[in-house]
Amino acid sequence: MRRQLLRNSFSTLNRRKQIMAFSFLKKFEKDAGSTLVIDALNLAFRWKHNGKTDFVQEYIGTVQSLAASYNCEKIIITADQGSSSYRKNLDPGYKQNRKDKYAEQTEEEAAAFKAFFQEYEKTLAALENMYPVLRYDGVEADDIAAHLVKFKGHYGLDKVWLVSSDRDWDLLISDTVSRFSYVTRKEVTKANWRDHYDVSIEEYISLKCLTGDKGDNVPGIPGVGPKRAQGLIEQFGSAMDIYDATPLAGSYKYIHNVNLHAEQILKNYELMDLLTYCDEAIGVDNINDIEGKLIHED
């Protein structure tokens, strides 16, 4: 039953301006009617890495400058409120590596982190007086952004620019959805996708399901890195097709691991396929609140 539900869900998806401290290397194309979607905490870490604890106004200025550069008529702030309850229920070890790392902080590091988050909360409060801020307990910004992209027609969004250094957000790329990373200062678009990845946009989720995500403590198939994953995708098709083909023939250790850990592929779809599972991760009540803020705000 779980496998069939996964398959059914999977089959339905098949500048001239300097921006604050950013120095852009090329002129950005400006798209009238675009919406800027900010990964709030992700962007705030720009100041954390620079050791700044007084950044409210700089943050707001950066958001506004980005919106002006991309000619965005709307700005939406998406923010994490703890780790995903949905994913924790699927895998208690989800992002446990981050908690372990924080537990090992020195007193000085913990104090700096506390000061950063206090300023971050001030920043969100200030932004909330200006733009829709979407933040819900046990929900991650990734899922909120995925929901907005998945139903962008419903929300009256035409072209969308995502602002995040998180490559998970590349699962949302399409003709009308692109991403800008403040870390690399590069754009990821449908047009330049192959400059960044050796698999297609449609194959990207399969690559992630096979290789996992170390940053989120999501295991992949042991011994299967990007190159072997790409080879498996070229030979069998999607990760779901690979699962269906198991047990795979072959004497290589990584082939044995694919057969042994095939169920991990299914779990990884549930953990990482943002467009398919974003609504389940957000919850009905929170989706109603999003609609209230974005559709019925007037």
SSE layout and pairing:
Blueprint (H helix, E strand, L loop, with lengths): L1 H10 L22 E6 H10 L6 H14 L2 E8 L5 H6 L5 H8 L3 H22 L4 E3 L5 H10 L8 E5 L13 E5 L4 E3 L15 H8 L14 H11 L2 H7 L7 H8 L1 H11 L1 H9 L1 H11 L4
Query: Any idea what the shape is?
Result: globular
Q: What is the distance, rounded to the nearest whole angstrom, between the alpha carbons of the first and last residues?
A: 43 Å
Number of β-strand runs: 6
* Rg over CA atoms: 20 Å
CATH-defined fold name of the domain at 31-196 and 281-294: Rossmann fold
What's the arrangement of strands in the largest beta sheet? 3-2-1-4-5-6
Task: Give the rounded overall mean pLDDT.
Answer: 90
Hey, roughly how much beta strand do the residues contain?
5-15%
| Number of helical stretches of at least 4 residues | 14
Percentage of residues in helical conformation: 40-55%
Description:
The chain contains 14 helices and 6 strands. The chain has helices at 2-11, 40-49, 56-69, 85-90, 96-103, 107-128, 141-150, 204-211, 226-236, 239-245, 253-260, 262-272, 274-282, 284-294; strands at 34-39, 72-79, 133-135, 159-163, 177-181, 186-188. The protein starts with a helix and ends with a helix. Mean pLDDT is 90; it is low at 12-30. It has a 6-stranded mixed β-sheet with strand order 3-2-1-4-5-6, sandwiched between helices. It has a domain at 31-196 and 281-294: 5'-nuclease (Rossmann fold, 3-Layer(aba) Sandwich), CATH 3.40.50.
Descriptive tags:
single chain, Rossmann fold, 10% strand, globular, 298 residues, alpha/beta, six-stranded mixed beta sheet, 49% helix, 6 strands
